[in-house]
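Ticket #4471: complex job returned nothing on first submit. Input attached below:
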Amino acid sequence: MIRFLGSRLLRAAITIIMVVTFAFIVLRLSGDPAQIIMGADAPPEAVDAFRTAWGLDQPVLLQYFHYFGAILQGDLGRSMRDGRDAIVLVAERIPATLALTIPALIIKLGLGIPAGITAALHRNSFIDRAVMLLAVAGFTVPSFVLGLLLVLVFAVQLGWLPSGGQESWRHAILPIITMGVGGAAVLARFTRSAMLEVLGQPYIRTASAKGVPWRAVVWGHALPNAAIPTVTIVGFMVGSLIAGAVVVESVFSWPGVGRLLVVAVANRDLAVVQCILLLVAATMVTANLVVDLLYGLLDPRLRNQPKRATGAA
Amino acid sequence: MKISRRSALKLGAASLALPAPAIAQADSRPTVTVAVQNISTSNTLEMLREQSNVGTRIFRNYVEPLVDTDWVGDMSLQPGLATAWERVDDRTVDFTLRQGVRFHNGDAFTADDVAFSFGPDRMWGGGAKEVPTAVVQGARRIFPGFERIEVLGPHRVRVVNSVPDIVLEGRMARTAAVIANRRAFMAAPSWMEWARKPVGTGPYSIAEYRPDQMLTLDAFDAHWQGRPPIRRLRFAEVPEVASRVNMLVSGEAQFASDIPPDQIERIASDPRFEVAGGPINNTRYLVFNQAHPVLANPLIRRAMSHSIDREAIVAALWGGRTTVPRGLQWEFYADMYLADVEVPKFDPAEARRLLREAGYRGEAIPYRCLNNYYTNQTATAQINVEGWRAVGLNVELQMVENWGQIQAGDKTSRGVHDWSAAAAVNDPSIQMSGTWGRAGAPWLREQYRNEEFGTLADELETSMDRPRRRIVWRRMLEIIEREDPGYVVLHRNANFTAKRRDIAWRAAQSFVMDFRASNWGA
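Support reply: We reran it on our side without changes. The output follows.
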């Protein structure tokens, strides 16, 4: 187990280092932050002074080593646009994002998994087709289209809910539904296909033939075995809790991490973008680690054969 | 009716005894929400840092300069925090300050605040707080010849320039020339905390600023012009156009700014709403880079200018809601406005002739373009490229993401890019000499240099001889727009604001949004 955990942690560390390095290189290749932040008509000496002040005049490799060294000391840098520590700026926005993504995740799980199970248990029936029709619709409609449609109906036409902003709990309803519906559709499709695969296995037929009640067959045998692909998808959803609402936050003017990321990228506010990417990578890696551990809990065979678990991840 | 001291005290005590809701109900002024694309590009409200179009939109509501501008009228200079001004000599202007003005923190406005506002603490650096480089550089650019402010008395100051400056009064009307409260600045723990909540004298005080989200202003009832018409004024940052329009239609906002021309008819078709605005004091133009090997030849640049059908752009993309100006100048330049000047006409035959004369062989000219940083920018660029192709010019449209990418690379690698020019003062010297003269970014980057133009730009900036200045100005336009083009004027920018039809409010000839009593319910 220790070896298993150790290899996972090592892989997580390598992933994070790669993300940090990639973000650093891409951001520096895609536009001079000094010119962007100082503006188009800034005289060259002003731009040069900015570069010097922020160390952008140094060789990129040296900048990278400085940056990496600072990260190891817990210093994620300062926002060029705001002047404050990047981590403070990002931390300020996390509660707003979680206020959307956690309820949305609950909707995804609460709607998607039961819908997928129901569809699988009623395969080829009207219920199955109706659920899959809705799932395909929810899966294919982009979140910005769905968001605007919901605003058109519930804010503009009916006037029941606000169309954007973050002033009360009512402002969160439409963005949460927008995010929840798409994710629930994805989960419903995955759960259905996983369940169908398991329901066709010989051990399900054996259990039924032995006279085990159908409900017990489903809960005791089908669901645990169908859970692995679903847990993988849920892991990705948990991993995107921090920055998984970029589009929805923009459509609904919700001041979360996603909006901050958009603004920071546009302004090449290097420290802020890097801080968000680091946080996202860490969340995603942690979620994957938890998923790996859950595989072992769900399937004892994987627990005893860590190499196979690696393949499943 | 005579009010005794005793009865006044009774009245005061009685008002204190009133429950809070009763007092609130007595204020029947509305709360107004304006949905804007962006509140501030720098995440500050300090106009020395926020030199932007979006900063221009909000500033007048909470801070004021000595010299005001008639934004919704003819753009003329008006008394602001100064009631009068008087030229002492070519370099010096005395200002008489308005009495009875109070800052939002209750302090009386005096000459000391003017001296502080133009002093090292706030503007030039090296003072009590660490001021960002951008502030110092911006101040140097906006007040290039500034020497000092002399306090002549509690309500009288003298502004002294190091060189003759015919528009010194106009510079005192710039957004960067707003007056700030010394005590509040000094009390702020850091420059950033000051810049997030500057204390000025405007009709609204800053209640709360949440960067990238919301700016909330409250009526400042002690304002020298009287009670403002709006109890609470909110600027909500809503990046998406559709979301801004939705806020307006659903009643959550009373104004929605930055409406693209193609949305105007749809909004105005609803009887509850209308779209205000039109051409503003901002012109869209294309700028050339002389350092590019092909564009080094002025004949090529002239051919490019003659290949652009400006009227077609205005008709097709703006629905005729803006105009093609007479060069890079505005009507409010008054006696410096040259009404007979025209931009080079659309003449493909002349363009082809110039290209033949230049010996052009189809060499590629890069055109770096941002994706709709300016309204209709990408569509305009595509029309221009097709116009150039029609006369035989090989212009390669390169979509880039930011200004850094526009200026990236060796100076010879850059060809053409989009830009805009704004004028807030009624004289061409600030805009033209400041931007295109020897101290301007294009000159310093070796993007545009013409010795005769540079000399004339210096003269325009420092000459006090008005007839001579008109001659100089005419020649400057001739050089930079026809003989040795530095840019190609496309059209005047236009700014549109959707609003509730039942609110009487006028849009300014700029990005400024004026919510004073004089522009509300009129």
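Chain A is about 80% helix and 0% strand. Closing as resolved unless it happens again.
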